[in-house]
Structure formats: C-alpha cells, structure tokens
Amino acid sequence: MGKKSVRIAVVRHGQKDGDALTPLGERQIAAATKVLLGKVQFFRIAHSPFNRTTQCATIAQNIRNHAAVLVDKDVDGLSFKKPFAKAYDSNMQIYEEELAVIQANGNTVAAGMRVSKYAPLASQQLSDYLVSLAKDLQKHKEKCAICFSHSPYHTLAVPEALADQFPYQGDEASCVLYTITDGQITDAQYLPCPPVE
Asked: Residue 90 — pLDDT band, cuts 50, 70, 90?
C-alpha cells in the first residue's frame, strides 16, 4: 500500500491593527491565497480563535467562491495562546528577552527551539493539530487545507532537519506548506507573501 500524503498550508495573518486586518493586510491575504491556489486546490479552511485569522479565512473563502469550502472555526490547535501562557505566564518581558536572543542568533526555528520555552510547546501543539487534520482530510478523501495562524507559531512544526532554514518569526502573510505523510510531517516549504501595495 502506497504512502498517503496531504498538504496543509499554515499562513500567518496579514498586517494588523490590534486584532483586525488593515486594508493592506487584507490585500496580503488575498495575494497569498491566490499564490497557494496555484500550488494546492484546498477545500478546507481553518483558523485560530482570533478576529484577524477569522478575517483571513473569510477572504480565502470568498476567493474560493466557485467551490464548496468547509471552514473549521476557532481551532485551538492554530492558536499560540496556550503554549504562550504556559511558557511565560503572560510575562512579556521574558518573551521579548528570548526573542532578542533568537533574532541575534539568526531568527530561525532552530534558534527558537534552543532558546525559547515557548517554541517546543508551540511546535508540539501545532504538529499534533496538523497530523490530526491530515487524518481527517484523508478520511474525507481531501488532499489539501489552508489554515490561518500567527507568528511566531506558523513555522514551528517544520521537521528538525529543516529548522535552520525557516524563520522563527515569519513575515506577514507568509506561509509554510507542510507535507504530512502517514502521520508524520515529512516536508515543509516557506512561501513569502507576494509583493502587495
């Protein structure tokens, strides 16, 4: 029996003001979604329980208006909130100190995993969610999904062998296109947001 793979794109929200996308952020997400459609034909959209990612999902859903799209709303597995609270107990100073060290060491996922209390927790949560979603996609004979999340979070499930090639803090509307094969995250590709004015 052959290996079964699915691809799941995890996109960082676009530019925001508070918990809302700015007009530029909306254009960034539209552009990123269109680039993804050139690579994968997704019929499932998921987002974290924040307004800015809900807005992203709505934009993607509107772009896919010619197809039936299932939207998984308020997915905790796409939210940084629980691992962040566990690692920092809402102490932003510790987070900012760690972030400065990570940035000084190349701003890579590998540096984040070495330095941060948060990164391994977030990596495990996101990885578990992606594997679970992949199983559900396969059950419904779907091969692709697009998810909207945050940074530093959306890059943290990359395989260890690729961790020094991926940014810890990805750019606005950047995407990681994960490949999950037989219950394992086997590959990842970083896609920056295309230029948007």
From this structure: confident
Degrees, nearest 5: CA angle 122-149-84: 35
The two structure tokens encoding residue 57: 């999902």
Q: Is the pLDDT of residue 1 over 60?
A: no
pTM: 0.95
1, 138 contact by CB (below 8 A) = no
* The CATH number of domain 14-80+123-147+154-191 is 3.60.21.10: no
- AA identity, residue 168: Y
Mean pLDDT, rounded, for 25-45: 93
Q: Where are the alpha helices (DSSP H) in the chain?
A: 23-37, 51-63, 81-88, 92-104, 109-115, 118-139
| Spatial distance between the Cα atoms of 11 and 136, rounded to a whole number of angstroms | 20
Which residues in 64-101 are b (16+ Cβ under 10 Å) and which e?
beeeebeebeebebbbbeebbeebbeeeeeebeebbee
